[in-house]
Amino acid sequence: MEEMEEELKCPVCGSFYREPIILPCSHNICQACARNILVQTPESESPQSRRASGSGVSDYDYLDLDKMSLYSEADSGYGSYGGFASAPTTPCQKSPNGVRVFPPAMPPPATHLSPALAPVPRNSCITCPQCHRSLILDDRGLRGFPKNRVLEGVIDRYQQSKAAALKCQLCEKAPKEATVMCEQCDVFYCDPCRLRCHPPRGPLAKHRLVPPAQGRVSRRLSPRKVSTCTDHELENHSMYCVQCKMPVCYQCLEEGKHSSHEVKALGAMWKLHKSQLSQALNGLSDRAKEAKEFLVQLRNMVQQIQENSVEFEACLVAQCDALIDALNRRKAQLLARVNKEHEHKLKVVRDQISHCTVKLRQTTGLMEYCLEVIKENDPSGFLQISDALIRRVHLTEDQWGKGTLTPRMTTDFDLSLDNSPLLQSIHQLDFVQMKTSSPVPATPILQLEECCTHNNSATLSWKQPPLSTVPAEGYILELDDGNGGQFREVYVGKETMCTVDGLHFNSTYNARIKAFNKTGVSQYSKTLVLQTSEVAWFAFDPGSAHSDIIFSNDNLTVTCSSYDDRVVLGKTGFSKGVHYWELTVDRYDNHPDPAFGVARNNVMKDVMLGKDDKAWAMYVDNNRSWFMHNNSHTNRTEGGITKGATIGVLLDLNRKTLTFFINDEQQGPIAFENVEGLFFPAVSLNRNVQVTLHTGLPVPDCYSSRASIA
């Protein structure tokens, strides 16, 4: 019953309905509250004017929603009628149950009549506080709305069920709680008074005894109010209009608007609608039962989640404590090794100290003895022992010279703790798989016979284990940075083979693979070590070259069809390491000035190399050369090229320098410094020049020797 209370309260005042009326939208409102929220509309919107113009046929005309703003879009608490230029903005209030309502535009006139009979302002409009539909009242005003007698009866029964216990009316001293009420006697009895004053025999045996609460309701409702017609107030409802879906009186059928409508007996429709409502309630009752069971399930889930959380946290703490204990045990073992090394070093040094002390004492004694012998003045006696003493002195000296004065042990501890794998494992410590009904896929297997490297690219292939029954939806390939750093994802997809380009030359990479599905991810495969090429083998790239460039010799030889300079790049880019390549001049006519160097991938292709800020080059003719970057010419150097000449380009990204050679001799100083990023070998030439590229070459000896000295 308590859940029903909100259904019994007015959306305007928030209290139980008092004399509720039914609006055409089927919502209810107190009669007094309905009068309070009336708003007067302009004359042009009245039902009379609409009927005169033929625009409306019903007694209640709903306002065009495009002409009325029922409540503020910004939830400011204000509403206004936007279609009326003269209508002032009317503040909006909120009822206790949170529904917006509109107060009257003017205070109601003082009257001694009831709210139902009091006159309503001409051309009044009422807005339903629940669905916000608006309508204009006719001449009958609020009397044109039917009264909800059923709702009144439900409210009375609800209030009686919530009322205090009724007392016996015949107890002489302290009245006891009444147990029954006699409808004929209209008296409440307790059990002793009923047996004494109202025995169930004789004429009293025909009296009807009811529970006290029911008796009070029947007392309040007696005599029962009869529902009358809203159009003909003196007539009772006798039939039901099927088309209008409302009770009507016989006068409505004779001369009213329902005269041509289909009607049925009021009692029959009453029973039919009760049956339909009961059937609808059965379905709703099933949904309510399911909702209650679902709420019980959710509450049980809350409890289970709390219990599982405590259990999981305890398990996590235990696992982490076990890791800490294992680390402490390993720490103790490593400290024991350090202490052992410490004791060993001390023992060796102390033994050497003891040995040197004895040896020094013997040497000092020999020295003092020899000094005393030298003091003797007997030549013959001195010569008899001098040879032996000389041999002893030399022998002792030789003994000191054979590493005796070199420490047998260093003070440094030749131990270095490699903790990077453990730190990496700690960083990767995570929840691999949650509890689930379906398993994760098996760990993929790397197919070593199909894994290889070429230049700065690596190709890896893998497969699922032969006996694996859990399908994988995809794979994740990870590589480190080539310097022992953290792994990073380089491929995610369904394929079982992947080629990774753009790696560093002469670098060692670690690769691993794992599978995943909707449940989670597998364990990592074994780590595969990949070594990229020490030197780069590459050709010119037709895809990025200017269209005037002509390729031959497997894209190792290039020339041009235009008299203007055109740029061509190598296929391989460099971002790390030392790289050297050469170009031989196959044809050189009319003394052109080709340019050689490096460039970014987006360098201009229709001008000489070095004209923009994306290239670093040396351009050379038959007598001299210049360095050029961003159209800035520097370091003019004597010495040019002819047919058969060789131009070398040395890109040292470790020292961030670019150096040029002509015929194995360095051309000028270091051309450019502080070069870093990704660079591609580049050449610009015209139709008077043809060059051939040579790659995979070692660094010139002269540069290697200077680099080692530096």
Structure description:
The structure is a single chain. Among the domains are: 1-40 and 120-164, Herpes Virus-1 (2-Layer Sandwich), CATH 3.30.40.10; 171-198, no CATH class; 285-401, no CATH class; 445-531, Immunoglobulins (Immunoglobulin-like); 549-705, SPRY domain (Jelly Rolls, Sandwich), CATH 2.60.120.920. The chain has 710 residues and is α+β, with helices and mostly antiparallel strands. The chain is 28% helix and 22% strand. The two termini are 95 Å apart.
Percent of residues in helical segments? 25-40%
Question: How far is it from the N-terminal to the C-terminal residue, by CA?
Answer: 95 Å
> Can you identify the CATH superfamily of the domain at 549-705?
SPRY domain
CATH architecture annotation of the domain at 549-705: Sandwich
State Rg.
53 Å
Question: CATH class of the domain at 549-705, please?
Answer: Mainly Beta
Main sheet overview: 8 strands, antiparallel
Beta-strand content estimate: 15-25%
